[in-house]
Design brief:
The protein has helices at residues 2-14, 18-25, 41-45, 50-74, 79-91, 104-114, 116-133, 136-153, 160-173, 175-183. With 193 residues, the protein is an all-alpha fold. The protein has one domain (2-183). The chain starts with a helix and ends in a 10-residue tail after the last helix. The model has no long low-confidence stretch (mean pLDDT 94).
């Protein structure tokens, strides 16, 4: 049953909607009613508050890392279930009728929790692509793919499957972004739209 406990732990921690809670607490309103309607840091940035977006990013990273950290200590054989549960919880939180974020920051925390070299690869690709393109969706999708490749190349083979499933989920959640990327209409960080 440890796999179920790990999955539930990940899901419950991952489903905490920090972006929404912080935006409401700061008087910025319901972040789901602006921009993309997501609860992640990129959409929180559209409230005009860089501090709120940064806090959301850090907390979303933390909610990916924490359940993996706990699972390592309580049921190490079930760590991948905690990892998958955390990202799934962020993307489909029961508290918000299963409409959450796209999982990029939470998966960064998961990657660091699984093994710091995977997390480092994730962070370098994410930040590097964001610096080069200023397109959040492209940076996020590149990072999730980098985590899978890093796990495979660095011999963390027991994490390849869960990171691969997470990557497929994150990319699927970015399908509208992919269409805009192909059309050349995907907004860049700092642009008006």
């Amino acid at each position: 049953m440890n796999w179920l406990y790990a999955l539930l732990l990940g899901y419950l921690v991952g489903s905490i909607p920090f972006g929404l809670l912080l935006s409401l607490a700061a008087g910025k309103g319901d972040v789901r009613k602006i921009g993309s309607g997501n609860i992640g840091a990129t959409n929180v940035l559209r409230t005009g508050s860089k501090w709120l977006a940064a806090a959301t990013l850090v907390l979303d990273l933390g909610k990916g890392w924490l359940p993996v950290f706990i699972a390592w200590r309580l049921f190490p054989e079930a760590v991948p279930f905690a990892a998958g549960g955390a990202v799934f919880g962020h993307c489909f939180p029961v508290w918000l009728k299963f409409r959450g974020g796209k999982g990029v920051a939470t998966n960064a925390g998961v990657s660091f929790g699984l093994a710091w070299p995977i997390g480092l690869a994730y962070a370098l690709v994410w930040v590097g692509m964001l610096a080069l393109t200023r397109i959040s969706s492209l940076a996020g999708m590149s990072a999730v793919i980098a985590a899978v490749l890093a796990a495979a190349l660095l011999d963390y083979v027991s994490f390849v499957a869960v990171l691969g499933l997470i990557a497929l989920l994150v990319i699927w959640l970015h399908r509208a972004n992919i269409r805009r990327l192909l059309n050349g209409t995907e907004p860049r960080i700092g642009s008006e739209k």
